[in-house]
Each structure stands twice: as C-alpha cells, then as structure tokens.
Amino acid sequence: MADSTTNVPPPPHTIFDTILVLDFGSQYTHLITRRLRELSIYSEMLPCTQKISELSFKPKGIILSGGPYSVYWDDAPHVDPAVFEMGVPILGICYGLQEIAWHSDQKNVVAGEKREYGHAILNVQKHSGKTAHVDALFSGLEEDMDVWMSHGDKLSQRPAGFVTVATSENAPFAGIAHEEKEWFGIQFHPEVTHTKKGTPLIKNFAVSICGAKQDWTMDAFVGKEIDRIRALVGPKGQVIGAVSGGVDSTVAAKLMHEAIGDRFHAIMVDNGVLRLNEAKQVKETLTAGLGINLTVIDASDRFLDLLAGVKDDPEKKRKIIGNTFIEIFQEKAKEIAAAAKGSANEGEIEWLLQGTLYPDVIESISFKGPSATIKTHHNVGGLLEGMHLKLIEPLRELFKDEVRALGTQLGIPEDLVWRHPFPGPGLAIRIIGEVTRDQVRIAQQADFIFIDEIKKAGYYKQISQAYAALLPVKAVGVMGDKRVHAQVIALRAVETTDFMTADVFDFPTKFLSKVSTRIVNEVDGVCRVLYEVTSKPPGTIEME
Ligand code: GLN
C-alpha cells in the first residue's frame, strides 16, 4: 500500500487560532468548546492529563474545565505543570480555578461549609492604575451578573500575585486575575445557559485576552477539508461508505464526492424497516440531486425473514439488523473492490468513510477519573475483515450544527439538512412486538401522516425527533356504524439539545385530534391514536 499520507494538509488546530480546553471530567466541558465554536473560534478539548511536550500545536489560550474531584485529594487530577510555563493566557472554571489556586499554594483550597448550587449574583470589581488590565475578563459586563454555580470547595485565601475581580455572597474569590500574567479563574460556569452573560465572558477571554481570530466558518473549512481528503486518498485511491439518508452520512458523502468524485462509492442498504418510500427518495436525492456514486441494495426480504417470530426481545431485533447490515455491506464492498481493481485508472479501495462527529470524539477522550481505563474508539473498520480498510472521518472535528451549516454550504436540500435522526434498526424498534410486513405498512403510513402534519403546521424544526410507533394491542372502535377491533398508534415527539434528556413537545390538542382523525381514516388496521407523554429520563426517545 502506497503511503499517501505525506504532504497531507494539516488539521484545523494548526491552521486556525485554537483555544485548548483541558477536561477535568465536568459534564459541561464540551459546552465550553461549543460556545467557542459558536463564536467562530476554533477550539478542541483534550483530557487534563495531556502532556504539553506531546501537544502537536500551540494554542492561543487554555481553558481548564470544572470537574467532580477536590484538588486537595491525594489522587486528584492535575494538569502538566508545563501548562503554566507556556506563556499563553489561562482561564480556570470552577475546578479549573481551584487548580490554578492550588498550583500556586496547596493551602489555597479547602472544603466549604456549604455547597453552592444554582443561581448567584456576582459583583464585579474594577481595578485602576497598574492592575487595570485584569478587568479585561469582565469588560462590558460590569453590572451585577446572574451566574450559575456548582461547587462545594472554595478558595480559603487569594493566591499570591492575584487580585479579586469578582465576588458573590458565598464565594469571596468568585473571580481572580493574576497581576502580571494573563491567568484568570472563575468559580461559576460561563458555559451553561443559566449564566446570563456567559458567552460574552468567554469571548472576552478568547478574543480580547488570547487574541484568537474569529475565522472558524464552514466556508473556510470546506476547501481545506477537500484538499486534505484528496491528499490523504491520493490520485487513484478509492473510498467506500454507508449512507442512510440522514444528515451526517449525506454531508460526509457529498464532501467525499466533491473531493474525489466517483472514486467514492456510497452504499445504501434497504433493510425493509425504513420510512415510507425512503429508499427511493434517498436514491433520487443522492444520485440525481447530489451526483453521488450510490448503490442501493434492496435486502428487505432478507431482513424481514430473519425478524419473523422475534417478539419480546428488542435487543435481538437490534442484533439481527446490525449483523445482517454488516454482512450485506461487506459482500457489496468486496464486489465493488473487485470491480475497481480491474479498472485501468483506479487504485484499490483502501478507505472506509465514517461519519464520526466531534461529540463522539469528546465522548471517547473525556477524562473519566484517575483510575478509569481509556475506552478505545469503536471502530467499524475492524468489522470489514480481510479488507484492511483505513478510516476516513471528514466530520470528526465538527459539532452537529456545524455539520448542518456545512451541508447547506455543499448545496444539500434544507429538508435533508434539518432531518430528524432515525435509528439504525429503523421502524423495527418502533413496532413493539413482532415485525411483519403488515405491521411495517401500518407503522410507515401512520408515521408519514404524523410527520406530514407536523411539517404543514410548521413544528418540524422546533421538534428534535418525532415518529409514530405501533403498539401490539387491539382496542375496540366504531367505524361506519360497525364495531372494529384494531391496533393502537402511539405518537412521540420530543425537544432536546443533546438527546441525553428530552421534554415532550407541547402540541395543541386540536393538532393531535387532526392527526388522529387522519391516521384512523387512512391507515387500515388502526382504530385509536395516543400521544406518548413520558420525558427522558425515565423514558427513552425510542420505544425499544
Ligand atoms: N469538586 C469541586 C468543588 O466541589 C469543583 C466542582 C466543579 O468544578 N463544578 O468545588
């Protein structure tokens, strides 16, 4: 295999001004990175254990995150002391503040008498004379600030060389700044939306103090990424990848197509449990619309035959669908690879496209505690045994909103860019009980009507995920003066930002009645429609 990785353009952290976030395991660390990206500033997160000598780029500034530990514990995590020698501005948030104070003197941090959790009013203190530069962090935010706190430890004294730039009732050192170096610490969390002026504060740090340029846009990223893909794959190399019709795989596929044309081979497997007309529509959009070299494999019978008789075990449904998908993808990949090998000007298939996003990367590298073993990133490439494919992950640096912006940039239609997520096992986990061809028909038709009405009423973008599920029970109804005994549909629609927690969408009853009327009238085999009102937790977004 030729080494095509020489002369590959460097990754974003060497091109764009980068703020490095070092993670101490807070559940909010990824939000710091997101807020920076929303400000068009490139930012990456690494675990707090990162050795500075092994860092492949020089950040414009460093943010130390919060974390669940106490800095004075014997096994508490600490940053490489070289962080304080780099000569770049540092902002410590909560545990990060305590880490800065502890670094200066281990006596500076103690357990507080009481925990402080929730809103607090911050009093910003201005300085004049030779220490006036310490005001930069709160510049323009001088009024009493509504902030959000979540800590039990506190600074017992002001570390030597620092001044106090903010106080709160329970935290006399809620904000500190070094008199000479550009080091700042705050006890509250500016990255959460409960802190009213959090984003302007992060901007003050990144732009005014670190001098980071706000040039991270998808417009600037796309050309560089296309160059990087071309250099990585080389002039003849070929790539294979699965597409589903969802936003991530479509954006990744379009990007590959822009970079290497038909040397990117997309495969879509129709598993028989897709939405109404989905395989046909995806094919049209991706081929006629976006020009992607796509093979659609109709394997519905193979999947549905395997699913027959599986009733009470949702995990079994997932396994059958997952394993069969891999088998089919593998068979097709080998066929395409064999055909490609014979062609005159094309090389071997060496690469597998993966639609990994930055939240997946964050999840796999975030700091899980002093004794936790690092989880290796789940690698689909290994499943394609015998092909020895290398992974190519063009969306690896991007958050979901950035993937959407990139999709728009690449000319992908709006309704696809904003499409709700759809699970790999498809309707099979929205059909409770046995998946038969007739149950699939009912679920598809009911789902189509629900989504159609949601779009007509203008709710689609407000909702994060919506679908109709089919329950395995029958109820009595009267239709056309005739008693019927038919099945029940459960509608589900949730709002969420991270899919970890979710609220039920608040439809007007009139809207729900309209959907119910249409489903009962138009879908044979259904006589009742329910609205599912369980939040997550305790419910999950999908049914099985
Ligand atoms: N564990 C530390 C405390 O309780 C830090 C908390 C945090 O970073 N949110 O003060």
TrEMBL record:
Q: Does the keyword Ligase apply?
A: yes
GO CC aspect terms: cytosol
For this chain, one GO molecular function annotation is: ATP binding
Q: Which residues form the GMPS ATP-PPase domain?
A: 216-419
Primary enzyme class: ligase
Q: What is its main location?
A: cytoplasm
Residues involved in ATP binding: S244, G245, G246, V247, D248, S249, T250
Q: What is its EC number?
A: 6.3.5.2
| Pathways involved | Purine metabolism; GMP biosynthesis; GMP from XMP (L-Gln route): step 1/1
What InterPro entries would the database entry show?
Class_I_gatase-like (IPR029062), GATASE (IPR017926), GMP_synth_C (IPR001674), GMP_synth_GATase (IPR004739), GMP_synthase (IPR022955), GMPS_ATP_PPase_dom (IPR025777), NAD/GMP_synthase (IPR022310), Rossmann-like_a/b/a_fold (IPR014729)
Pfam families linked: GATase (PF00117), GMP_synt_C (PF00958), NAD_synthase (PF02540)
**What highest taxon heads this organism's lineage?**
Eukaryota
Record's catalysed reaction(s): XMP + L-glutamine + ATP + H2O = GMP + L-glutamate + AMP + diphosphate + 2 H(+)
Cell compartment(s), UniProt? Cytoplasm, Cytosol
The protein's matches in PROSITE patterns, at most eight in alphabetical order, are given as: GATASE_TYPE_1, GMPS_ATP_PPASE
Q: Which UniProt keywords apply?
A: ATP-binding, Glutamine amidotransferase, GMP biosynthesis, Ligase, Nucleotide-binding, Purine biosynthesis
Question: Tell me, what does this protein do in biology?
Answer: Catalyzes the conversion of xanthine monophosphate (XMP) to GMP in the presence of glutamine and ATP through an adenyl-XMP intermediate.
Tell me, how does this one assemble? Homodimer.
Q: Which HAMAP family match?
A: GMP_synthase
Q: What is this protein called?
A: GMP synthase [glutamine-hydrolyzing]
Q: What organism is the protein native to?
A: Aureobasidium subglaciale (strain EXF-2481)
- Higher taxonomy: Eukaryota, Fungi, Dikarya, Ascomycota, Pezizomycotina
